[in-house]
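FORM 7B: Structural annotation worksheet

SECTION A. Query
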Amino acid sequence: MQSLKRCIISGSRDAKQVNRFISTAQQEIIKRDEQFAGPHFKPLPVVLAKGEGAFLWDIDNKRYYDFLAGFSTCNQGHCHPRLVKVMRDQCGKLHHVSRAFFTELHGELGEYLTRLFGFDKFIPMNTGVEAGDLSIKLARRWGYRIKKIPKDKATVLFAKNNFWGRSIAAASASTEPLCFTDFGPFVPNFEKIPYDDLTALEEALKNNPNVCAFMMEPIQGEAGVKIPKDGYLKGVRDLCTKYNVLWIADEVQTGLGRTGHRLAVDYENQKPDILVLGGPLACAVALEAVKILEEEKLAENAARLGKIVKEELEKIPKDIASEFRGRGLLCGIQINKEFANGWDVCLRLRDNGVLSRPAHGQFLRISPPLVIKEDQLREGLEIIKNTLLNY
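SECTION B. Predicted structure
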C-alpha cells in the first residue's frame, strides 16, 4: 500500500472548518440558499456551475470528478453533445402541448423502448417517484379488476430499506425514519418485508391473498449498494408468478447500463411485470439518451470499468474500508466508523477533486457517468485511495 502515490492531498483539519476550503463567493451562495430554500436535503458544500462528460466545475472553475452522476442517473455524462443538440432543436420547434394532442415523438419513443426492453406499453412520467406512484396505481387497479381483490383491500409489499422518492406514497413505504417521521397518516395496505429474503416474501404472499404487487430494487442504491444473493431475482419472479402477484422492479438507479447490463434484472435473465426507469425529460431527449446508451455501448463500458473499481478499491486496508460492494459502475466501499465519518470523508474528497456522497452514513458511493474513460476513472480512484491513506 505504501507504493500508492501521495498526491492531491489536503492537510488534516477539523470537519467543522469546512468553509475554510471553499471561497467566500461559494459561502455566500450557500448562505442564501439556506436562508430561502426549504431544507429537504443536505447538499455537500460546493457550488457547481457547469459539467462536461465525467467532470464538474464549481463557480471558481475548480474541476472535480463526478463520482455520483446524479445518483446514478446521469449515465451519458454531463452535456453530451448529442443530447444538447436534440434539446436545442426541440426547443426551437415545439414546447409543451400535453397529452391533449398527439406528437410524433411520443409514439416513436414508446415503440423504441417497448421493443428494446420487451414490454407491451410505456407511460412517461415527470420523475422517478411519480413513476413509482403510477406503478402502484396500476397494480392496485389490476388487483381489483383482474385478480378480483375485494374493494380497498389491495396490498403492496415493499422491501425494507427501499428508497424511491419523497412523495407521501414513498414515505409510506419507507423504513427510514428520516423519510417518514411526522408525515403521517400514511397510505394504507403497505407492508414491508426484509430485502433478499425469499422465505419472508413467500410467507407474506401466502398469508395475504390480497397482495397485488411486490415493489423492490434489484440493487438497493441508497441502502449502501446492497446486492442480493444470486438467485434472489429468479426467486422473486417465481414467487410472484406462483401467487399471482405483479413484480415491480424499480430500476431508476440501476437501469440503462449502470450495472454492466442493460437492466439490473438482466443479471439473472428475469423480467418484471412493471419496470420503473429514470431518464431525462421530454420525448426527444429521452429517445436520444437511450440511443446513446445503446450505440456507445455504455453498459459494456460499465461492466469493464467496474472490474477496475473493484480491483483498486479492494487494495484499501480493511481497517479503513471494511467492505466493497458493487456491480458495474454502481459500487462503493464501507468506511469504518472508527476510522472516519463518511460525510467528513466526502468533504475531504471534495477538497481533493472528487465529488460523491455517503449512503446510510458510512458507505462511500462510486457511480460516475458511464462515459468516463479508463484513465479518468483510474485518476479519480487514485485520489480516493490517497485521500484515505493520508486522512
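SECTION C. Observations
The longest strand covers residues 321-327. The chain has a mean pLDDT of 92.

SECTION D. Sign-off
Analyst initials: ____
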